[in-house]
């Protein structure tokens, strides 16, 4: 085949020797006298890039006049003249005839296909240019303006560099790609690719009359939503707009062959030719992912292929049909959670990194500024959104949408800003709903709520310009001030700009506070959002937080036992309301003494809903990768596995009871071998519960309910969540005289277990977290996993080791380290390697005789094998602290967590 082609090439060159003129015509031009005949020589462009001739595609026997790359080993057809009118025999002739048309005749001289003309020429010729354009023109007239007809205006399935895909605004003619029917039939198939100028230009891929993909409008740099710049390595591309035409096209930057094709199965591909591979390399593929499917997520839905499921609603929108949405039928799209009210004044909220919605019905003005754009949109109630039409140089131009916004993608990269019309109450400036991202599975979150909004100036005045002497507290979120507003005392929680409490937490808190009304919950009076400032205004509770009483030697005397019991009961009722009785069913997740505030009558009020979570319907629990809360109060299943449920709150409540009874903080409780929990458990088992009571209270004569409270506390902190009572049971148990069940062993006896986090221990799986002792197994397992070369036959065989370690009275601080390792070795007799290393590396260590702590750990720290895992380091560091009778301070914990970050 190749040989044959070459032969033909030389044959066609032959006449050049005799006539220059004839030569040029013969190689790239058809004239009224020189025809392209099936079976004869092909014509080829000067420069040798393309050639034209007759061919049969695939397995078809039909003959077509086609154009393909001349100098590559793979026949790649880029254009076909008679794609709809095949010749069924091999005797076609392509001629140029007066007044200037190309005509394809079959063997019996019938016209099979022809071009058109509105003018007539003296001496028409058809020339194949090196760009792949076949042009009909007057012989010798090379002016592009005088071309009568060109194949670039009639593309098939291939867009070559220099072609214009788009619309002539004067004649109304549209140039678009259409796929072949199939491999054997180049007749137009279902798929077409257009540069659609209606509204604002964007490219559109259609199957039949349905849009299946949309590039997004051209924003001056790229198609909105793609990250590609117009500058590629091989070509530059863009959408070009003038008074007379709008088109998409590209230009080559190198000699690399590039083509854009629309395959018969509707896939758009950019290809580059590789000389090395002697083949076409796909450079770009569209559709690229499910989010490329046109309006997959419906109106106001937002597609993100990184998410699962990929469809979500834009912020502040809700599924229009939530049942269908749950079934992954997103076609109904989303609707604003608060309806618009144009007459009362809507606002526009900015959404970033958005692939702009369908612009086919948009209005545009490319010279307007964003401000002018906004003003126009604001004036017309049916204007739904606006944005810059061009993002270059800081943005310019105006795009307006008057219908529902369709086919939006959002992602961390790419995209641009769009401003969407929203009800005024959705705006930070005139309402408090903020940026609350709804969880579609969590029931109704749609009810509107209104809370009073205060000006920054009002609050500044009320708090004496946030003066330092008005500050009454400081949380992780920022300072809390006392103020006086209209004669009423208020507390102002000011979210500091560097706060770890993000917008979600802030909004959570607003929403929950507004919806929750109970005498044991702190009441919110309003909020204030201005610029970067976010503040919550609460009722002022003069007695501050519970921890300032119970953990303070002097203040604790204020709270006698009846008051403490009253407080325990109040918290229990507040929590019961959250868990069971409120509309929302909420898990607080950060219950602790300093989140309990006391009013002037020492009534407790639960505060700080920043990290609360809605309970999911039909489900008492959920899992999170982000464990938040306060160490010392976290239930083991939450701290270790990120599993939280109402029972995690119950656990924290149990700790709170023990703290209120004992006047000791679980976090700061210092005892050689256990924390407050362990201490309470020990006393309880020995029947000496009453000794847990705050020393100061032991003298008072009336202490009913103390042992009952301790027992309830211990029931609440049992290791297995299912064993813990619900809050309604707790309330009942506290207030009745009935016999209480016997508490089982508490979970979380060691404080440092509370830091362990599933993300940091990815290989961790425990069959049942409720069987005692597995925490240690897990530690040993990890220890071994992280220290290559060590093996333990069956590391998870029993939990006795931990029981021994924790509960055996013989084990005391001084002997901890030693005994731990003795047991460890005994437990794992198959550890000769470790043993040998141990003694070889540390010959001076008098292991058998002494149980002095410290040196063993020092050794472990420097041991290279053990250092392999930061986990080991982590564990032993904590262990070390414990041995030295100290609780790691929170910054040490932070440091350690940072160290263990992979
Ligand atoms: C044809 O291709 C070969 C190798 O790919 C190259 O060396 C040669 O210059 C090309 N000729 C033309 C006319 O492009
Ligand atoms: C040429 O086309 C005419 C009309 O379509 C048809 O009748 C005739 O058979 C064709 N001749 C050949 C050789 O295909
Ligand atoms: C030729 O042009 C006329 C008028 O411009 C048009 O009606 C006709 O359909 C065209 N024919 C072809 C084959 O393009
Ligand atoms: C929501 O659904 C209703 C009825 O199914 C429909 O009329 C309305 O247009 C939809 N809203 C949006 C934004 O799609
Ligand atoms: C576009 O906006 C500019 C500046 O605001 C204005 O002068 C011009 O008339 C507008 N053009 C159209 C078509 O509205
Ligand atoms: C709002 O815009 C729509 C669409 O451009 C237009 O039909 C309507 O007349 C405009 N309404 C007003 C009050 O300008
Ligand atoms: C959600 O709210 C709607 C209307 O307020 C109500 O009809 C529906 O029953 C509610 N659904 C749930 C799960 O509460
Ligand atoms: C608060 O600050 C503002 C501006 O900084 C100042 O004008 C005003 O007098 C201050 N008010 C008080 C009560 O200090």
Automatic annotation (TrEMBL):
GO biological process terms, semicolon-separated: recognition of pollen
The name this protein goes by in its record: Receptor-like serine/threonine-protein kinase
Domain Apple residue range list: 342-423
Xref: InterPro entries: Bulb-type_lectin_dom, Bulb-type_lectin_dom_sf, Kinase-like_dom_sf, Pan_app, Prot_kinase_dom, S_locus_glycoprot_dom, Ser-Thr/Tyr_kinase_cat_dom, Ser/Thr_kinase_AS
Superkingdom of origin: Eukaryota
Enzyme Commission code(s) on record: 2.7.11.1
Catalytic activity: L-seryl-[protein] + ATP = O-phospho-L-seryl-[protein] + ADP + H(+); L-threonyl-[protein] + ATP = O-phospho-L-threonyl-[protein] + ADP + H(+)
Similarity field: Belongs to the protein kinase superfamily. Ser/Thr protein kinase family.
UniProt GO MF annotations: ATP binding; carbohydrate binding; protein serine kinase activity; protein serine/threonine kinase activity
Domain Protein kinase: 466-740
Signal peptide: 1-25
Pfam families (alphabetical): B_lectin, PAN_2, PK_Tyr_Ser-Thr, S_locus_glycop
Residues passing through the membrane, by range: 859-881
Domain Bulb-type lectin: 27-149
Keyword list, A-Z: ATP-binding, Disulfide bond, Glycoprotein, Kinase, Membrane, Nucleotide-binding, Phosphoprotein, Receptor, Serine/threonine-protein kinase, Signal, Transferase, Transmembrane, Transmembrane helix
Annotated SMART domains: B_lectin, PAN_AP, S_TKc
């Amino acid at each position: 085949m190749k040989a044959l082609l070459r032969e033909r090439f030389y044959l066609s060159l032959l006449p050049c020797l005799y006539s220059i003129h004839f030569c040029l015509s013969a190689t790239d031009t058809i004239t009224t006298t020189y025809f392209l005949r099936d079976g004869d020589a092909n014509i080829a462009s000067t420069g040798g890039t393309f050639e034209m001739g007759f061919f049969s595609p695939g397995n078809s026997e039909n003959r077509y006049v086609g154009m393909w790359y001349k100098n590559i080993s793979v026949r790649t057809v880029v254009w076909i003249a008679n794609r709809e009118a095949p010749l069924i025999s091999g005797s076609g002739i392509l001629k140029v005839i007066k007044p200037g048309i190309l005509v394809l005749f079959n063997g019996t001289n019938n016209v099979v296909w022809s071009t058109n003309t509105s003018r007539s020429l003296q001496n028409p010729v058809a020339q194949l240019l090196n760009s792949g354009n076949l042009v009909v023109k007057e012989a010798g007239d090379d002016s592009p303006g005088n071309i009568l007809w060109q194949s670039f205006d009639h593309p098939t399935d291939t867009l070559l560099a220099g072609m214009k895909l788009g619309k002539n605004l004067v004649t109304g003619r549209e140039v678009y790609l259409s796929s072949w029917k199939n491999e054997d039939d180049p007749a137009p198939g279902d798929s077409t690719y257009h540069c659609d100028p209606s509204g604002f230009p964007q490219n559109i891929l259609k199957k039949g009359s349905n849009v299946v993909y949309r590039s997004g409008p051209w924003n001056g740099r790229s198609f909105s939503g793609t990250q590609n710049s117009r500058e590629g390595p091989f070509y530059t591309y863009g959408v070009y707009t003038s008074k007379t035409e709008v088109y998409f096209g590209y230009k080559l930057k190198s000699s690399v062959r590039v083509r854009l094709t629309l395959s018969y199965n509707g896939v758009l591909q950019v290809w580059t030719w590789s000389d090395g591979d002697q083949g076409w390399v796909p450079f770009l593929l569209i559709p690229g992912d499910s989010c490329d499917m046109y309006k997959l997520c419906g109106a106001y839905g937002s597609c993100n292929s990184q998410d699962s499921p990929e469809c979500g609603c834009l912020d502040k929108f809700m599924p229009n049909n939530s049942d269908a949405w749950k079934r992954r039928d997103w076609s109904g799209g989303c609707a604003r959670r608060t309806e618009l009210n144009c007459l009362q004044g809507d606002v526009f909220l900015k959404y970033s990194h958005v692939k702009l919605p369908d612009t086919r019905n948009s209005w545009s003005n490319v010279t307007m500024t964003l401000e002018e754009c906004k003003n126009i949109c604001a004036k017309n109630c049916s204007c739904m959104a606006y944005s810059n039409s061009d993002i270059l140089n800081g943005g310019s131009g105006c795009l307006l949408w008057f219908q529902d916004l369709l086919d939006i993608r959002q992602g961390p990269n790419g995209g641009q800003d769009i401003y969407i019309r929203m009800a005024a109450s959705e705006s930070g400036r005139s309402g408090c709903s903020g940026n609350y991202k709804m969880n579609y599975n969590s029931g109704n979150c749609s009810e509107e709520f209104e809370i009073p909004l205060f000006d920054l100036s009002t609050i500044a005045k009320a708090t004496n310009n946030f003066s330092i002497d008005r500050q009454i507290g400081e949380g992780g979120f920022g300072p809390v001030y006392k103020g006086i507003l209209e004669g009423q005392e208020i507390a102002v929680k000011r979210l500091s700009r560097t706060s770890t409490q993000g917008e979600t937490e802030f909004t959570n808190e607003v929403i929950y506070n507004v919806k929750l009304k109970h005498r044991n919950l702190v009441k919110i009076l309003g909020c204030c959002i201005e610029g970067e400032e976010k503040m919550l205004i609460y009722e002022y509770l003069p007695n501050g937080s519970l921890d300032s009483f119970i953990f303070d030697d002097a203040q604790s005397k204020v709270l006698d036992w009846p008051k403490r019991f009253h407080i325990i009961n109040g918290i229990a009722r507040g929590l019961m309301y959250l868990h069971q009785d409120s509309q929302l069913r909420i898990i607080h997740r950060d219950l602790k003494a300093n989140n309990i505030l006391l009013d002037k009558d020492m009534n407790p009020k639960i505060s700080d809903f920043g990290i609360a979570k809605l309970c999911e319907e039909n489900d008492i629990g959920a899992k999170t990768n982000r464990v938040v809360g306060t160490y010392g109060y976290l239930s083991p299943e939450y701290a270790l596995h990120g599993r939280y449920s109402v029972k995690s709150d119950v656990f924290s409540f149990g700790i709170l009871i023990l703290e209120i009874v004992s006047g000791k903080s679980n976090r700061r409780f210092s005892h050689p071998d256990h924390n407050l929990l362990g201490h309470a458990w020990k006393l309880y088992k020995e029947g000496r519960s009453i000794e847990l009571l705050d020393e100061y209270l032991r003298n008072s004569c009336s202490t009913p309910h103390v042992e009952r409270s301790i027992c309830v506390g211990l029931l609440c902190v049992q290791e297995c969540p299912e064993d813990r009572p619900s809050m309604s049971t707790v309330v009942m148990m506290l207030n009745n005289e009935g016999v209480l069940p016997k508490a089982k062993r508490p979970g979380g006896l060691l404080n440092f277990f509370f830091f362990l986090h599933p993300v940091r221990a990815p290989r961790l799986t425990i069959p049942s977290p409720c069987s005692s002792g597995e925490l240690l197994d897990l530690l040993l397992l990890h220890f071994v996993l992280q220290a290559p070369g060590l093996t333990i036959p069956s590391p998870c065989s029993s939990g006795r080791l931990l029981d021994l370690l924790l509960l055996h009275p013989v084990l005391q601080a001084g002997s901890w380290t030693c005994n731990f390792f003795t047991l460890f070795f005994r437990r794992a007799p198959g550890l000769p390697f470790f043993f040998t290393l141990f003694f070889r590396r540390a010959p001076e260590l008098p292991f058998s005789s002494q149980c002095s702590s410290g040196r063993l750990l020092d050794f472990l720290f420097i041991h290279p094998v053990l250092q392999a895992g930061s986990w080991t380091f982590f564990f032993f560091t904590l262990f070390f602290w414990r041995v030295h009778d100290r609780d790691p301070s929170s910054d040490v914990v932070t440091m350690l967590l940072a160290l263990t970050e992979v």
